[in-house]
Design a protein that fits this description.
Elements: H1 3-33, E1 42-46, E2 51-53, E3 61-66, H2 67-76, H3 81-88, E4 96-101, H4 111-114, E5 115-121, E6 129-136, H5 138-147, E7 174-180, H6 185-190, H7 196-201, E8 206-212, H8 220-229, H9 233-236, E9 242-247, E10 250-255, H10 274-281, E11 288-291, H11 295-302, E12 321-327, E13 332-334, E14 340-341, H12 344-347, H13 351-358, H14 371-376, H15 378-382, H16 385-404, E15 415-421, H17 423-431, H18 436-460, E16 464-469, H19 478-481, E17 485-487, H20 488-496, E18 510-513, E19 517-520, H21 522-527, H22 532-540, E20 543-544, E21 547-548, E22 550-555
Length: 559
């Protein structure tokens, strides 16, 4: 090849590499900008696939994989089959394989965490089709508000999506939003034959193939608040599942919406949800139901219930909506009674009793000989077929008793129902979304969504809108991607080196940290003459498995 051609090829490759870098970096920065908190000082960007989380599990899980699916996953993420085969000692003649794995997570702006599907079924209000437009979770509330002909506080510009709407002044009797937890595109790509109903639903609905998580972090609390409020974390202040701080030699963890003792602090959600405002606008007549496995999910979608204080008409008091979550100690659906209610019919569901009732008719590897063992294995229950069935049966019972039996669907006040199907997330964390275990749960989840859809068709004909989406995706298991894991303990320990030995237990240069955001303790830094640049240099030099952990550290001004 002539030298001049080689030179031009190198230039073209360099430009392509630079453009690729600019693309990921610009999108990452935009998401960070939408998520900045008043006291965020630095944004942490790990190398792809690396996991920065509170800890890895003490125990390991035995996951199962098929060679065909794992090869497809590796190819999609530019990972090496040869390296994996050799490190796992996988005999290439074996089509299936088992591997001990530990833990994966989700929080970044990389595609495996952020690419999500969005289905919107409602043939009376939407033109069916596969749409390539980029859309964030936040846009869902604005799309639904248009169907309701209702202008709410967090309305986004959706003019570019006007092509999906039919002209119809009639309102649906009910809007149901299903969140498949950790159900990003990575899960569907890994198991392309395991969701026949949702695959067919693409042809009967609006399907956004380029749905995105448009914020940091790609967490449950943040994603559900995005769907429910239509606002970004810079406004909601829900920007992570938890916040970590250093206190006298230990790490304190603050869970989002966590009040004192058993109380919930709804003031942490700084904006109204669509349900908050729609309910008040309609004189508290709509039924609002939000059922999720955790408070951080249920609250983010439904909002403030009786504690809503952002209403324009202060003379009308909000009511207590049905907002509830799993209590994994008492094994029941629970709530915060100062603001919310649990439907009477749902109170009858006990997690252990439900498992025993379904045990003989459910094909599942989950087993517990008694209540004590069930409590010890609660996370494995949540990763099982039983959790899928529990979620589906509970929400259908709530709709039946609180809306249909009370004939509230005939009052011309659109009811709003939100439900999260948890098992896809739990199985992803425990076994990896690449695993056979995840494939089986996806298949059962797909069937449960079909059951919910059939229930809605039977009872509402086509006078309903159904949204199906995800709160986030997830990284491949580190054992698959050969990635590194950094715990918050290691993180604080590394940064403490900048301080004198004698004060490291008492003080920290970090006020708080999540998984992407850091707030620095300027007073401690000033006291010991530590600069922001020194902190950044230290972070850039953190290594795990002899490799740098962080790819970029951005100052607030960089955004």
């Amino acid at each position: 090849m002539p030298a001049i051609i080689k030179r031009y090829l190198l230039i073209i490759l360099s430009i392509f590499s630079l453009c690729t870098s600019c693309t990921w970096e610009s999108e990452y920065k935009e998401a960070a900008k939408r998520s900045l908190q008043p006291d965020t000082d630095l944004i942490l960007v790990p190398h792809p696939f690396n996991i920065f989380d509170k800890h890895s599990r003490e125990s390991i899980t035995l996951s199962h994989y098929t060679q065909e699916e794992i090869k497809n996953i590796l190819k999609e993420y530019n990972l090496s089959w040869e390296e994996l085969r050799d490190s796992w000692k996988w005999n290439e003649e074996e089509q299936s394989f088992e591997k001990e794995v530990n833990y994966t997570s989700h929080y970044t702006q990389y595609s495996y965490d952020t690419n999500i599907p969005i289905w919107i079924y409602g043939p009376k209000w939407f033109y069916n089709g596969v749409y390539a437009d980029k859309i964030h979770q936040q846009h869902i509330a604005s799309l639904l508000s248009k169907v309701l002909n209702f202008s709410f506080s967090n309305l986004l510009d959706i003019q570019y999506l006007s092509k999906i709407f039919k002209t119809n002044s009639e309102k649906p009797k009910i809007i149901v939003t299903i969140v498949v937890d950790q159900g990003g595109q990575q899960l569907y790509s890994a198991h392309p034959n395991s969701f026949p109903f949702l695959k067919d639903l693409k042809n009967k609905s609006v399907y956004f193939k380029n749905g995105r998580v448009g914020h940091l972090e790609a967490h449950t609390a943040v994603g559900h608040a995005a769907i429910g409020t239509g606002a970004y974390p810079i406004h909601t202040r829900a920007f992570s599942n938890e916040i970590y701080s250093w206190s006298k030699g230990t790490i304190d963890v603050h869970q989002v919406y966590q009040g004192i003792g058993d109380k919930i602090n709804l003031d942490e959600l700084k904006v109204a949800s669509l349900a908050d405002e729609w309910d008040l606008y309609q004189n508290n007549e709509p039924i609002v139901i939000s059922q999720c496995y955790a408070a951080r999910a249920s609250i983010g979608m439904a909002g403030h219930g009786k504690d809503f204080r952002f209403g324009k008409d202060s003379s009308l008091k909000p009511d207590a909506d049905f907002v509830y979550w799993e209590n994994t100690k008492d094994l029941k659906w629970d709530t915060y009674l100062n603001a919310f209610l649990v439907p009477d019919v749902v109170k009858k569901f006990n997690l252990y009793d439900f498992y025993k009732e379904k045990e003989k008719i459910t094909n599942s590897s989950f087993k517990a000989k008694d209540r004590l063992e069930f409590l010890q294995k609660i996370h494995f229950f949540q990763a099982s077929e039983y959790q899928v069935l529990l979620d589906g049966e509970s929400i259908r019972s709530a709709i039946q008793k609180e809306i249909l039996d009370k004939r509230r669907h005939l009052d011309d006040k659109t009811d709003l129902v939100y439900v999260t199907l948890k098992a896809t997330d739990a199985v992803g964390h425990l076994y990896g979304w690449e695993s056979e275990e995840a494939r089986k749960i996806l298949s059962v989840t797909d069937k449960e969504i079909e059951t919910i859809f059939g229930f809605l068709k039977d009872n509402f004909q086509d006078d309903f809108v159904l949204v199906v989406t995800a709160d986030h995706g997830a990284a491949p298991m580190p054992e698959v991607s050969n990635a590194s894991f950094l715990s918050h303990d290691q993180f604080f320990e590394e940064l403490s080196i900048l301080l004198p030995k004698e004060v490291r237990e008492e003080k920290s240069i970090v006020r708080w940290v999540t998984h992407s955001h850091i707030s620095l303790n300027r007073e401690v830094m000033k006291e010991y003459s530590i600069t922001e640049d020194q902190v950044i240099e230290k972070l850039e030099n953190i290594q795990v498995n002899s490799k740098p952990f962080f790819r970029k550290i951005w100052k607030r001004n960089d955004l």
